[in-house]
Amino acid sequence: SKIKELLNLNCPTVTGKTLGENIADAKIKDAEW
Fold it and tell me: Which domain holds residue 6?
């Protein structure tokens, strides 16, 4: 999706996983983004 191009997916989060790992299974609700 386009939003992934705007994010640093290698950024660590408080969960101990990277941002990319946290959103890997996310579903797109608004396809216009």
Answer: 1-27
Mapping DSSP onto H, E and C, the string for 1-30 reads: CHHHHHCCCCCECCCCCEHHHHHCCCCCCC
9 found inside a domain = yes
Q: pLDDT, tens digit, for every residue of 15-31?
A: 999 999 999 998 888 77
pTM for this one?
Answer: 0.68
33 is a domain residue: no
> Does residue 2 contact residue 30 with C-beta atoms inside 8 Å?
no
